[in-house]
TrEMBL record:
SUPFAM superfamilies: DNA breaking-rejoining enzymes. It comes from the Bacteria. Keywords: DNA recombination, DNA-binding. This is Site-specific integrase.
């Protein structure tokens, strides 16, 4: 009877990684089947013949190994069920081992990496996108050699016409698939030659999006609003604080503590990229903060929405912030309709409004600092949505005769 075991081969590849293989032994002769998976030697547990938990994707790889061992054992049993003799090479030829993890197995790696980095909102969003991709395929797996340009173009059409998604949203789906494909290549799970993106293949073009912010007149309407419910007024307060501090994100506003304010400045670390921010507290913001300041503890939250939430649990904070933001946006829409503002509003529009009003007033390098952008190129692209003077003057110079 042939035996089947998983082993780590001794010959490493050019990247310095060792291949995980399935060894078939019969009559003291062995043959090996490569699984297509490679790891550093330090991650291999020789005693238990699996990948150590210290490997970032140990669960996925160990599940993959268990599946392949079971498949190989099944083929061995079936190949030896008749009375004919089978050599170890003949048994090997009867066993088909998948050369690599499929797309959705690597997607699980990607999702796990997001959770490990506390990117819970991104995790939820991309989990939903992968679920929709499975619905389109009608199955829970697809090998990388089948994930070609034809499949991607059909998926793009499906999202645009069947699901009625915007072109920008469809691009986000394609970017996610590309990210997972790149992860598979970097982990040596699939070959670069199978990559379906790039020139002459599936190209991803990010469509220009229209960013419309509020004007100074519209913001003054919000600042002087009366006749609103308490919940609507508090929603406007949070929106205005976001605007006053150059459009800081709602998640950061909700987590502001009184201890973040010292010597007339706001000092806080952004949740999105952990950048440290120091900004002067505008007088208008102080007036709003005075409304919430009572006998609050120095370490308590300024706004009450996240009170009772475990602030050490990033996943709980993420889920609560998403729910709170939906409620804030709903109250903002009701309030602006009552105030006679026709533009669409959401918490994120506070950031667009700062860009709209700053226009050409502030040097681009200073805007980069206020926006907390890593690259000035990002600031230039973002601000291009709100700078129209040169184009307007050029148009006037031609048509005003």
């Amino acid at each position: 009877m042939a035996t089947v075991r998983v082993v780590l081969r001794k010959k490493k590849n050019k990247a310095g990684l060792f291949p995980i293989a399935i060894r078939i032994t019969k009559d003291r002769k062995s043959s090996y089947l490569n699984t297509g998976q490679y790891i550093e030697k330090k991650y291999w547990d020789e005693t238990n013949r699996n990948v150590r938990k210290s490997h970032p994707n140990s669960n996925v790889l160990n599940n993959f190994i268990t599946t392949k061992i079971a498949e190989a054992n099944d083929k061995v049993v079936k190949s030896e069920m008749n009375s004919e003799y089978h050599s170890v090479s003949e048994i090997k030829n009867k066993i088909i081992v998948t050369k690599s993890l499929d797309f959705f197995a690597v997607a699980e790696m990607h999702l796990k990496n997001l959770k490990n980095r506390n990117k819970h909102h991104q995790y939820d969003t991309e989990f939903g996108r992968l679920k929709r991709f499975k619905e389109f395929l009608g199955k829970d797996s697809i090998p990388f050699n089948k994930l070609n340009v034809n499949v991607l173009k059909k998926f793009e059409t499906y999202l645009l016409h069947h699901n009625k998604l915007s072109p920008r949203t469809v691009v986000n789906y394609l970017i996610l698939i590309r990210t997972i494909f790149n992860l598979a290549i970097s982990e040596l799970i699939t070959e670069r030659g199978l990559y379906p993106f790039g020139k002459g293949k599936m190209t991803i073009r990010i469509p220009e999006s229209q960013k419309i912010g509020f004007t100074t007149d519209e913001i003054q309407i919000l600042e002087n609003a009366t006749g609103l419910t308490e919940a609507q007024q508090k929603a406007i307060h949070i929106w205005l604080v976001s605007f006053y501090f150059a459009g800081i994100r709602v998640g950061d506003v909700l987590q502001l503590k009184w201890s973040d304010f010292n010597d007339g400045r706001l000092l806080y670390r952004m949740n999105k990229n952990s950048k440290l921010v120091s900004l002067k507290i505008p007088e208008k913001a102080i007036q709003i903060f005075d409304f919430y300041k009572d006998n609050s503890s120095y370490n308590e939250l300024v706004f009450p929405q996240l009170k009772g939430t475990n602030l050490d649990d990033t996943e709980e904070i993420s889920k609560r912030t998403q729910s709170i933001t939906r409620n804030l946006n709903r109250r903002l829409k009701i309030a602006t309709k009552q105030l006679g503002i026709k533009k669409n509003i959401s918490m994120h529009i506070a950031r667009h409004s700062f860009g709209n009003i700053s226009g050409e007033k502030i040097p681009i390098q200073m805007l980069q600092k206020l926006y907390r952008h890593s690259s000035v190129t990002t600031t230039i692209r973002y601000q291009a949505n709100f700078i129209h003077k040169d184009a307007d003057d050029a148009l006037d110079s031609v048509v005003n005769f």
